[in-house]
Amino acid sequence: MMERRYNVLTDEWVMVSAFTQQRPTNPTTSCPLCVGGDEFSIPYDLASFDNRFPSMKVDAPEVESDSRLYKRARANGKCEVVVYTVEHNSAMSLMPTYQIEKLIKMWVDRYLELSLQPAIKYIFIFENRGAEVGATLSHPHGQLYAFPFLPKRIDAKMQSLTKYYDENKRCAICDVVENELATNERLIYENEGFIAFVPFYARWPYEVHVYPKRHISSLVEMNNSERSLLSKALKIVTMKYDLLFQQSFPYMMMLFQSPVNDVRYDHAFHFHIEFNPVKRDKNKIKWMASVETGTWAFINPKLPEEAAAELRSVEVVI
Amino acid sequence: MSTYFSRPDREEFGLCSHAMSVSEIIDFDDFSDIEIKKIAGYRKENNYELIIEMERIHLGFKFRGYVKGFTDEIEIFKFKRPDKLLVNNWQSWGPSKVIEKDFRLDFPDDLIQKFGFSVSIMPELYFDNLISDYYIASEHFLVGGLSSKVAHPYFQLDENEVSVKLRYFGIRFEQWQEIEPVVILFDDTDKVLPYYADLVAKENRVALSGKRLVGWSSWYQYFLDFDYEKMCTELENTRRRGYDVFQIDDAWEVDIGDWTPNSKFPSLEEVAAKIKEYGYVPGIWLAPFSVSETSTLFKEHPDWLVRGEDGNPRVAYENWNKRIYALDTTVPQALNWLANLFQNLKKCGFEYFKIDFLFAGAIQGKRLENVTPIQAYIQGITTIKKAVGDSFILGCGAPLLPSIGYVDGMRIGPDTAPYWDVSSSDIGYPNAYYSLRNALTRWFTNGIWWWNDPDCLMLRKSDTQLSDVQRELYTLTSLLLDNMIIQSDNLAYVMDDRLWSIVSEYRKYGRRKVHLSGIMSGQYNITSCGVDGCDSLFITDLEDCVFTYSKDTVDIELIKTVELKDDGRTFNYYNEK
């Protein structure tokens, strides 16, 4: 069974999938992403493939929805596993920037290919790193969800950014970039194309955002020089994370792009990446508990400016 | 027999002028929200009632409403005319261009009769007024209709004002009828045009197919001098060119309206089968709403034609040295004939339909059912869409807004030509220069309303007056705008192979993300991004083909291979070249 169900209390869609329940908590034998594992019989450099345990499929079953209260819809999206490298013991922080650049190119290809499907409304690229955020495989990989609807938080971002644009005739993130560069209070890294910083509005203790300096609404709009600069920014942020507590740092990395098959937000929506790490100290976790889950209101125990100072002071060389 | 018009007036069409008067003129360069709010409300005119509701939306305002009673046209509001405006013609071939305050329409008298309704759905207004259809934009705002399902949204310009109107062509609504929504969007033209296009697509529930094709067409090489033998020769020459579709154009049929093969072609099954042998989607041209005065259809079914006030069939336009009439798509038998025509073509093996001179389906006149020309057109195009199912429909000579959601591709300019003539009239006549100009000024509809067809590339180096630089600019613009690519050449000729290799390189990967700026200045700057980075084309002088093309430096070349596993899952592998 695979379908979407509408929550009339919150105006949001929930994906219900029996397939994901079959997903193993941890592979018991060999790594499925290594050559010779369950998924790959031949060597590869990078790969993106249909998730064996998807919550959405392009050919998802038709769904009957005849209730005014309990609406259902097809889960006709796509869930892909995005493998960064064949090297099992690597990570974004350990990979050469050249490999990250290749990954960015693969992301762009996936984005463009999936956007050709008229049913797809949003492409969400992400990585869960570490068991603390639910990653079941340690092989360096991320995922990609191509949604047939605009998820709630994405919609909230669109609404907020278009509202700011209407009020100021400016892109809010362009203004944030300008402000962060001017104040230099929260920056942890900057190059010609990108800034990485702990945002003024950080929800997690060591939350880091990566924003392009130029207004673009998706990965696709980056030129090759910017792709190279982004690969450096990603490498440096993840290296700083690993060196902060001298441990493999668990995080959720999320790429936010404007919707596909929809250009209404391109001028107001500024592509960005959020790192949401769950650690608040070397051995302490900030949980997504009742307040955060129930109200979407976060209590950040760490002053963003202090977190930025700590991350800034972590020296990295690439 | 026919009703002709030369500079026709409203009375000739039996229509009366009773647009409601809106006295206040909004100056969009200096206005308050209160002035916008005044547009909303209830109005009662002599023959009809109107309710307009206003909604604030991102970048501006949307007006919805309802009308009841006898309606020829309604005026929603007026605004002060800016000095510079982007205006648009109602159908594929018509100009979309920027005009200044001193612009005057210069339409040759001797072509008025020939062009007929192709110039405007309202020829009685067109020649003595300045008209923009569907949308109009200044440097800082755009006003546009979001749909054309019943009425025709248009703008009537005089020296100082622009009147925003919906034309209903004298129809009575016994019940409240929803009017076509209209938006005002405030921002730079280059930003509001794609935003407007998306609002229109959402209003019309467009679900665009991903089929963005590369193909071959017979027209700009052979015109009417095309036959089966030439088709077979060309098919042989197409090997390794990587086309998706091979389309035979006008030349195959007995007559306009008699859509059976003439003596130059075997059966259509044979034609389609031959094309399929080479691995291409078989494509065919026809003009389904047009009926020639010499056709059997015209002789046998005069009651299937749109009529004038005198009760006789009305001439829609002249072409092929003949008078061409329009199919009345409200006649059930005519609709059945139309459905059968396309079902049979599909049964023969065709899966790509270039349907041309579509404006004929939307001319004013008397029909069996008392509907507006737009409603009649939509009945016709819906019938075609149903008949061909998921096959590709390329619209041409088509009213733009009413076609949204029914066609996969759309010609968005006049016919191209093997010449580049900057001095001829800008009236929709074949000309590579104006064809490319429209590809630029209507760029924003691509991938949103449909796939734009900028018309065929001609890459041959002989039998053409196009220069190397004109060919190059046409090719690069079409590619960077991510448009359909249809070549029309005798492939035995010496080609500009460098340009074809650029085409192949660009079409190796899927969709591109495109932005164009500079519409109002006429210096077009295209940024076009794909897997290999962002390329740009800056056209500083379109007339003289002065441009700079810049290709992004590619340091990493990834080869993608796709594997379909036994369990149905797709694996995409990326390895460095």
Kindly describe this structure.
The complex is a heterodimer of chains A (318) and B (577). Chain A has 318 residues and is α+β, with helices and mostly antiparallel strands. In chain A, 28% of the residues lie in helices and 22% in strands. A nine-stranded antiparallel β-sheet of chain A has the order 3-5-7-6-11-12-10-9-8, sandwiched between helices. A three-stranded antiparallel β-sheet of chain A has the order 2-1-4. In chain A, α2 packs across α5 (224-244). In chain A, 45% of the residues are buried. The model of chain A has no long low-confidence stretch (mean pLDDT 95). Chain B is an alpha/beta fold and 577 residues long. Chain B has two domains: 10-203, no CATH class; 214-506, Aldolase class I (TIM Barrel). Chain B is built from 14 helices and 31 strands. In chain B, β15 (253-255) and β16 (258-261) form a beta hairpin. In chain B, α9 runs parallel beside α10 (373-388) and α13 packs parallel to α14. The A-B interface holds A 39, 44-50, 52, 98, 101-102, 105-106, 108-110, 112-113, 115-119, 162, 165-166, 169, 218, 220-225, 227-228, 261-264, 266-268 and B 58-59, 187, 191, 194-195, 197-199, 202, 207-210, 212, 448, 509-513, 515, 527, 529-534, 552-556, 558, 560, 567, 569-576.
Any idea what the CATH superfamily of chain A is called? HIT-like
- Largest sheet, strands/sense/barrel of chain A: 9 strands, antiparallel
Shape of chain A: globular
Supply the helix-strand structural class of chain B: alpha/beta
Give the DSSP E fraction of chain B (strand runs of 2 or more residues). 25-35%
Tell me the name of the CATH class of the largest domain in chain B: Alpha Beta
Helix proportion of residues of chain B, in percent? 10-25%
What is the name of the CATH architecture of the largest domain in chain B?
A: Alpha-Beta Barrel
- Contiguous low-pLDDT stretches of chain A (5 residues minimum) are none
| Alpha-carbon distance between the two ends of chain A | 47 Å
Task: Report the oligomer.
Answer: heterodimer
Determine the CATH superfamily of the largest domain in chain B: Aldolase class I
| Largest sheet, spatial ordering of strands of chain A | 3-5-7-6-11-12-10-9-8
What integer is the average pLDDT of chain B?
A: 94
CATH class of chain A: Alpha Beta
How many strands of chain B? 31
Give the number of helices of chain A: 7
Output the CATH topology of chain A.
Answer: HIT family, subunit A
